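Today's session is about reading a structure prediction critically. Students often jump straight to the picture, but the first step is always the sequence itself: look for stretches that repeat, for charged clusters, for runs of hydrophobic residues. Only then move on to the predicted structure, which in these notes is written as discrete structure tokens rather than atom positions. Here is the chain we will use throughout the hour.
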Amino acid sequence: MSMSIRETVLSVVKQAIESVLPERAVREALTAAPIEAGGGKGEVVLIAVGKAAWRMANAAHELLGPRVSRGCVITKEGHSMGPIGNLEIFEAAHPLLEQRNLEATGRALSMIRGLTENDVVLFLVSGGGSALFELPLEGVTLGDIAEMTSQLLACGADIVEINTLRKRVSAVKGGRFAQACLPARVRAVVLSDVLGDRLDSIASGPACPDSSTGSDALSIVRKYGLNLPRSILEKLSAETPKKLDNVVTQITGSVPVLCESARGLLAEKGCAVTLLTTTLDCEAAAAGAFFASLAREAVRTRQSRKSPAAFVAGGETVVKLRGKGKGGRCQEMALAASLGIQNLEGVVFAAAGSDGTDGPTDAAGGAVDGKTAERIRQRGLDPAAMLSDNDAYNALEAAGDLLITGPTGTNVNDLIVLAVE
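Below is the predicted structure for this chain, in token form.
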């Protein structure tokens, strides 16, 4: 490797994230399987929802141009980058629902009314769609949904249980958007931010059949003793679509794609690479300690190897809040790893959020080596104490080891790379 091991790791992280940028993902999907609308006579209506909606829609519009008869982009506030041809662009609230979210979704639904079997709805989906793309069923208010969500969060319901109820009071979730598009066909291109790429979970599955049932929903109400408005209780037993024959879906950007890109780049640079998992979901500090143990083993056996060793993983860890510091899951993982690789030569560990914002900070994560902990101590700080205080940002900033990319425009979970010379 002509680059230093640190330069190699940072280069691989940057290039791997570029491989799952929305523009590239959409272009590859639509080039691999071009849209065919009724022998050239049908309409193509473009609906894009999620944090990456503007960028996905822009790439699709550049590729399809005048073939798109009309369309609607619903993205998070501050994520629009200007006009796109004849598309209507809405910025909505995230993560909390507001009236403007409902109005934007209502506009999207009005655009797909009256389509024929010759027409195609190009549906571009990315993370954040659950909040951004929402319209309650008739008789259910925004306040009703807020009350239900508040109770579900307070009682400790998990995300699958929350979505089971949310889908049943929505006109677009749980396959109902695709159902509303009938008889038109739906071509869904999905940028996945859900581990395992569960289509019914990404944006709550607007174009995916719903596997949960009304009895499941009522069981959740009984399990937690929820006191829900009558308007919601009346809707819970109504069934969501269980089969959708008008939908074809492509998952074009996801954490497996991100990890496979990193694996290939490291192999090109002469590393012996092990892809460990694409569904890492444990506590961040524990993950950092585990990768440090891998590094120690790789150092112990380095004399028997002819090439550098590298390990790649993807997923989304969690931070157990014990202190009052500043950080995010990737920074916490990196700081924990730095304590376990102290004084090891030729070892670099990097963890990065693919969206470029790890926790409530301006850093994507951290990139640490065997000298990181010592650099923190030289600034008069205690890295172990800062880890306990969840203060990874300030610790890594002191060491010069924050990984800052700026917002990347994509979001497919986190990438972890460990390399040992």
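Discussion point for the tutorial: The chain has two domains: 5-17+256-420, 21-252.
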